Amino acid sequence: MRGHIRKRGAGYQIVVDVGRDPLTGKRKQKSVGGFKTKKEAEKALAELIAKIEQGEYVEYKNSTLKDFLLKWLENKKPLLKPTTYIFYEKIVNNILIPGLGSTELSKLKPIHIQSFISKLYEREDINSTTIKHYYTTLKTALNQAVKWQLIPSNPCEAVEPPKREKKKMQVLTPEQVNLLLDYAHNSQEVMHIPLLLALTCGLRRGEIIALKWSNVNLEKGHIIISESAAIRKNGKNIILDTKTDAGERIVELPSFVIPILKQHRKKQLENKLLFGSEYKDTNLVCSWPNGEELKPDYITHAFKKLLRKLELPDIRFHDLRHTHATLLLLQGVNPKIVSERLGHASIDITLDIYSHVLPTMQKEAAEKLNDLFLKKA
């Protein structure tokens, strides 16, 4: 490291070469003035050079958070799965850069991040879980900035992290389930099979959209869940592997569902002949008549429209999965089996989510014991 002292007016200024900017590659200099004597300047110069050489000095002046985040993405890309990179890229470009990108990295303070998070909570199109993802991504990126010695500490550490709000679960009754499925079937809705798979197999929206016929065994009566589609890029669904080993699972089909799926497959093959060269042979179980994939947002909006038309409770599509689990538990199915069908990492997750059902099950268990011992008395 080199530095020098120069006379400035009545005082002195020190100038030090602090190395290259890690983003631009250009050499950078640090200048500090206001020293009354040359001796004071010499002392300050020696201390600054020592800090730089010992890695205790951090200087990242004028570079913005946007500059850093783009560099961070560039370095992360070869280390991540393509789908994970796309996930980060969308958060950085669509949320973090528009919200905080113009702030100089060296001047980014906890209050900036806290205000940014507060504004996100004001948006109706973003839930607490999503905000948590945004915060975690920013914190992860800034941890790297600390490791690269671009900033001395991570401002996210002093921010109150977003808390996931436990959503109130809403489920449909068996009567409402039948009404919904009957209407979708009779009106030849594209939504019929997605609804059927969510209600009878407990599949997530992304799992339904990604399900292919190669993972459906109608002879043995089961489906294999190994992929999910929840992210879109360049007008296409991005297929992800299931998040956990438990997420990759075999789900047994109720017997009444098998002939419905057989008929649905037959109709798809007829459409393939009808559309000819215009048919998109995606091998997807759920698609448009021309074989084109369904968008995640379409599932959500079409479901809401169906609920309004049938005057059913305003629930989320994900609540159909909860309906599936709740009805099974109320029928006395072992929670371990329900957990396996849902693809939960452990039965504890299932018991926590569906704890509201357990008191009813406890009562029924007690009554069965009562009947058993009364017969012996």
UniProtKB/TrEMBL annotation:
Site-specific tyrosine recombinase, which acts by catalyzing the cutting and rejoining of the recombining DNA molecules. It comes from Fonticella tunisiensis. The keyword Iron does not apply. The keyword Membrane does not apply. GO terms for biological process: DNA integration; DNA recombination. One of its GO terms (molecular function) is DNA binding. This is Integrase. InterPro entries: AP2-like_int_N (IPR028259), CB (IPR044068), DNA_brk_join_enz (IPR011010), Integrase-like_cat_sf (IPR013762), Integrase_catalytic (IPR002104), Integrase_recombinase_N (IPR010998), Integrase_SAM-like_N (IPR004107), Tyrosine_recombinase_XerCD (IPR050090). CDD domains: INT_ICEBs1_C_like. Keywords: DNA integration, DNA recombination, DNA-binding. Residues 63-146 form the Core-binding (CB) domain. Residues 167-367 form the Tyr recombinase domain. Belongs to the 'phage' integrase family. It comes from the Bacteria.
